[in-house]
Amino acid sequence: MPTPAPERTLAGTPIPPPTPAQLEAQQHVAALQYAAGVAAARHGDERLDRPPFDRVRRYGEADAVFAQRLAALPPLVLANLQRLDEIATATHAAASDLEARLRDATAGRRRADRELMQAREQQARRAQRRSGLMPRARDRDEPEWSDRDVPILEATLVRATADVERLAPRLEAAREQAQGAGRLLHTCCQWVRDHAPEAQHQAVAHAAAVPAGKAVALDAIPAALAALRERIAALGAEREALKAAGVPVAEAVGALDSYLTRQQAEWTPDAAVFLQRAVPPGHAFNGILPRTEHTNFEGFLATLLGEALRPRLVASIEAAAVGRLLLSDAERAERLREIETEMHVATVTEERYAQRVEAGGRPAQRRADAPPVAVLCC
């Protein structure tokens, strides 16, 4: 059998055949693409967000770096990424199924409401005929209902309304869960793309080094997860507060003194104009007294009024410092390192809890903003 000619680019340059690693990556991307096609065919409702596999497919088809990362992923990271694929598929399927059920329930409620209205109108017409009045005739296409059908239709409407009220909040929760699973999968794919295999192996080793901690019974894990997530949220809030923390009062006063000293050194009065025999009108005090064209008004104030101005500025600094978080650079950096360490341990423990729940045959809802280094490397 003749050997096929190698493919060529538009410029005529031969395209080298794919390496075994690239073939493996292509097979993996093909599997994800198949899953995306199945999910899109099953859950193609426009009102529901598209499944997140479109993003994975785009990464694999349009981003060579991501395809290479997929081929070189540590086995643990690859298994976790595939599990996130499955979770995202399941959550989107559940949301799509609930949306279809809610549409059916809403249509059933409208139908029950219409039929009940027709039955009540026919009941009223029969009462008018019995009283000797001539009511409007029933439409030929309208089904005929008896008086005994009215309470049955009323009960049907009550049940249909209850179904709608029961399914609506469930659909909102399912949509939120599906969208969260999609965002988490997207973030994890981005992490895979942005980190070289060496960094991924280091992340796996770093996560494995987190102590197991005390054993928690399977039934107690939901409560432990809730408490752990509260702690994670508190650590995140403290981290944001530390980023906005101010410097201690002593450092602020030192910065003020440095500023005043620098301004005083930069201001040099220019009185040479007085040596002229004819001083230009309006120019005599230019560069000496504060005017609109003064070159260094701050230096003028610092030199002539600094002793009176400084106590007021210090008092203003002290008043602004009341109730505000103030830390030195060293204290702030040390606390941020402590928070990052505790946050890493907490998020790894959180993922281990989630995996234990799934191993017990129950679904585990992960946070959409869970760090990929914990979700993929445990």
CATH topological fold name of the domain at 20-194: Substrate Binding Domain Of Dnak, Chain:A, Domain 2
Helix share, percent: 55-70%
- Globally, the shape reads extended
Stretches where pLDDT falls below 50 for ≥5 residues? 7-11, 34-53
CATH class of the domain at 20-194 reads Mainly Alpha
Cα distance spanning the termini = 49 Å
Describe this structure in words.
- The chain is mostly helical and 378 residues long.
- Among the domains are: 20-194, Substrate Binding Domain Of Dnak, Chain:A, Domain 2 (Up-down Bundle); 249-326, no CATH class.
- The protein has eleven helices and no strands.
- The protein has helices spanning 20-42, 53-62, 64-71, 75-130, 149-194, 197-208, 221-243, 249-266, 297-321, 329-359, 372-375.
- The radius of gyration is 37 Å and the shape is extended.
- The two termini are 49 Å apart.
Give the tags.
378 residues; 0% strand
In short:
The chain is mainly α and 378 residues long. 68% of the residues lie in helices and 0% in strands.
Topology:
Blueprint: H1 20-42, H2 53-62, H3 64-71, H4 75-130, H5 149-194, H6 197-208, H7 221-243, H8 249-266, H9 297-321, H10 329-359, H11 372-375
Helix pairs in contact: 1-2, 1-3, 1-4, 2-3, 2-5, 3-5, 4-5, 7-10, 8-9
